[in-house]
Amino acid sequence: MQSEPQVARSAILEVALHLARQSSWDAIHLFEIAREMGVPLAEIHRHFPNKDALAEAWLDVADAALLQLPQVPGWRELPQRERLQQAYTTWLDALAPHRELTREMLGYKLQPEHMHLQARGIMRTSDTVQWIREVAMLPEVGWRRELAETVLTTIFLTVVAHWLFDASPHSRRTKALLAQLLNAADLGARLTAGRLRRQPLPAAAS
């Protein structure tokens, strides 16, 4: 008995992106991917239980590129601000070959009937921001960490929203916006730290 053909996750994702570029992300179906690859639909399901899992796999490509940064020689010696800049831009640059499809994927998640995908997207954003913090080796703990996460998440969402529609060469406008936001965040952190240092200690109870 001849065994069913098996394919790798990366091959399925590549075919899905290829088909989507010919039409749109909304228009492709998993059975079309199976037909294009000459494999049973069950083989697609073995790797991807639903269409959104393909979109998540595409975003995983950006996460994987992000996580390679600590292997760059001299990474630890870079200023924290530079590590953050590179972390954000590396994540975006990994998705740049399919920017329009990425926009369509995220738009698909935001459709009113896809509330479950939106909840998953919130968790994914939180996870990605956490990995940006780890890659950039941010040292904050306690309430400072929580504040930093809020700021970094706001920057992430703002920059991604701008990048999705940025037609400038090499996303220059997005990268300029990112630099401005990081500078503002750094200034805010310095001012906050300065105010905290100037606060008088509470008087000891008599």
From TrEMBL:
<feature type="domain" description="HTH tetR-type">
    <location>
        <begin position="6"/>
        <end position="66"/>
    </location>
</feature>
<protein>
    <submittedName>
        <fullName>TetR/AcrR family transcriptional regulator</fullName>
    </submittedName>
</protein>
<dbReference type="InterPro" id="IPR036271">
    <property type="entry name" value="Tet_transcr_reg_TetR-rel_C_sf"/>
</dbReference>
<dbReference type="InterPro" id="IPR050109">
    <property type="entry name" value="HTH-type_TetR-like_transc_reg"/>
</dbReference>
<dbReference type="InterPro" id="IPR009057">
    <property type="entry name" value="Homeodomain-like_sf"/>
</dbReference>
<keyword id="KW-0804">Transcription</keyword>
<keyword id="KW-0805">Transcription regulation</keyword>
<feature type="DNA-binding region" description="H-T-H motif">
    <location>
        <begin position="29"/>
        <end position="48"/>
    </location>
</feature>
<dbReference type="InterPro" id="IPR001647">
    <property type="entry name" value="HTH_TetR"/>
</dbReference>
<dbReference type="Pfam" id="PF00440">
    <property type="entry name" value="TetR_N"/>
</dbReference>
<keyword id="KW-0238">DNA-binding</keyword>
